[in-house]
Amino acid sequence: MIRRTLYKLFEPLLERISRRLANKLILLFTIIIILVVSSLTYISYGMLRKESVNNSIASTSNNLLLVGRNLESYLSGIEQLSLPQISYDEFAYAILHESEDYGSKMYVEDYLKNLYFSRNDLEAVYLYVIKEHKYYYVTKENYNITVRVTEHPPIDNLSWYKRALASPFNRSYQSFVEEAPAAESSVDYPVNKDKVFMGYHRLLRSIVSREPQAVLSLYLNSSVTDEIMKDIPFSTGQHLMYISPDNEPFTVDDKEFYQGSREAGLLDQLTPEKNGRVTWSDEEQKYLVIYDISQKEGWKLVKPIPYTEIYAAATTTRKLNVFIGLLFLVLSVVLVSVTSNRITHPLKNLSLQMKRFSTGSFDAEATVEGKDEIAYLSRHFNKMVEKTNELINERYKMKIVEKNAVLKALEAEINPHFLYNALQAISTKALKNNNDDIVEMVDNLAMTLRYCISGRDVVQAREELRHIERYLALQKARFGSRMQVVYDWDESLMELRIPKLSIQTLVENCIKHALEKVSTTVTIRIEAHVTATHSVISVRDDGPGINEERLEQVMSSLQIQWEDRDSEAEEEDGNESIGLKNLNTRLKLLYGEEAGLAIHSSEHGTQMDMRLPRGGVGQHV
Questions:
Q1: Which among 22, 104, 355, 475 is least surrounded, fewest beta carbons within 10 Å?
Q2: What is the pTM of this model?
Q3: Reduced to 3 states, what is the DSSP secondary structure of residue 500?
């Protein structure tokens, strides 16, 4: 269906192009140029895209590897910082006795001050004493570092504390990218989350009993990590995420993008088996996700890059190639047009004369110039026109006369047969009834005869149906109430032009093979409907039908050409199917090979379809 529609749309353009050889040459070379330019553009675009992806993978992977190692070193430094810088025994003793020994308390405060002064990325330092349910914390007030002590409820239900207890390294990391549950935030340390990048919690245990004694918490700002991660090239559309081994985010450039990628399962795909790169798509675009996983703990540094950005250079190159190709195409078409027109000008003149000849101008004469192959064709064309002029005219006239004669002969064969049956019906009616009904029958017969001898070969369906009504009125005299007639004719087909006496031929066949062979009531249905390609007129009865062997003979006889039919064979056949054969031949002469008869018969009756191509009588008449 789509192919047919496209063909109808482009048919006028194709027809116009095909009229001239120059147009065909232009079209040929244009197609070749388009194919060459398109192929080169496609191949170069594909190679550039592949090269761009490989370059992005190589450069970004190396960059992430270097930055990831620096971040890993940074975390190692934080871990070292969280361990006591002096004797662990002394520090543990101070924690155990800080509430009762002033010296131990001062020892702890001095340790926290020194720790806070040791780095510029420490935003706050907390030391929670578990058995006392209080914590020391370092603050900066009026440029002075002050250590304060505050009571605090138990921290057993805090998630970072649970992770530190379960960790074989007695530590845990706390992220501030996502909001913590309200129940947990209410008992956590009062930290300014807008300034803090990470919370590092070190669990201090007793060497003897391994029971937890205190928790040292370091809250780090992003001054150092920003300095490290600025070495990663970053542009609009790209994203950057620093994620812990358990997929907890610590640095993200876009929280919404992180949430969407996590919900879509991107983080689960970032495994060592994927060689540091995966392809992932969200609702908006497709990304090349390059990532580095630290060897020590498994921290992930992830950088999703849109493919549109990777392909930007390749896309620009493709547009430039297309522009150059179009310019080259225009110049080539101009050169090919000029050259083709000079070569094909003599052929154009010859084709014009041949066109005149094909439309019936038998005095066409081509101009002969030069001695090349085109001049040779022109001379022989002129000779052909001269020799075939009289033959074509004579043959054309003979065909017209022959066709008209065949049509008249077919019509003449039907009329005597009908006249014989009609007279027989009148005689039978007169002998049986001896009443005034004969007057009506004679009138119907007169009008029927007038219709039959009219000089028209094709009539409107409305006229043919009126004739059938008169004809069946005559036949009613023979069969009485045994003959029932039903009409189901589409009103839109009343103006349909059909061969004269065509429906009568089909009705006669019903009478011959149904009414005349049984003594019961027979119903004849005359119908007309339209299909996608044909107008179909059907006449059917509910008689005994035609046996299979006889039906096969009739259908075979319909395939024989009128000129090839055997008169002796028809006489031996009893002339039973001559009307159908004549009608089938008339249909094909008037409407072409698409027209014809179709017969279906069974023990429940016979149906005959007269199929006429939609559009009516065409060029066949």
A1: 355
A2: 0.51
A3: coil
